[in-house]
Amino acid sequence: MSLAVARKPLRADAARNVDKIITAARQCFREFGPEVPLQTIAATAGVGPATLFRNFADKEELVLAALNRQLRLTVDPVVDGALADIDAAAGLLRVLEALMDAASADANLLGAVAGRRELLTGITGSLMDSISVLLVRGQGQGSLRADISMTDMFRLLAMLIGVVDTMEPGSDAWRRPLALVEDAIRTVRPTRPLPAHVPVPSTPGTGPHLG
């Protein structure tokens, strides 16, 4: 699910610098939060600020590139497996689980982008195409509600990602809301109990903000 970040082919040394910057960005956002200065990221990567800005025009572009890499590594393989699974509903839920796991792990990256709607559109481009395929298959198999549209799925996904605002980065508190979404979209509610309740942190705001 490639983000819309157009790039020309890079020389080997330039590609190494980009990789170091993205790795440093994830480390710095996790350690220092969404307001970490780009200069700190450059220093952590071992490159000068000019090198960082030569590759990334601003913080948002760097964040999108970092999220793009993590989604390729962690979510794309799950999507491929889901599309090959005979059970479309189970595959769809695994995709949502993988996406929420990635969102939780990189909550401060999400929080670094003020425009939530633009960010969501960027990180879900081809992912929504795959979700559409799984939704139609699941509806055809009778396991997913026939009255659910892709507009519904997009909004449910936005709601789920918004859950990251209400929990500590890295927490799995998203599992309970995801289970509630599963209950809502399946034709037959699963018999399993809901995952454990996780209280909202007493000092919310460590994650991304709705914009």
TrEMBL record:
Entry keyword annotation includes Ion transport: no
DNA-binding region, residues: 37-56
Pfam hit, one: TetR_N
Keywords: DNA-binding, Transcription, Transcription regulation
Keyword Nucleus appears in the UniProt entry: no
Gene3D superfamilies, sorted: Tetracycline Repressor, domain 2
Ranges annotated as spanning the membrane: none
Annotated Pro residues bias: 192-202
Protein name per UniProt: Helix-turn-helix domain-containing protein
Originating species: Pseudarthrobacter quantipunctorum
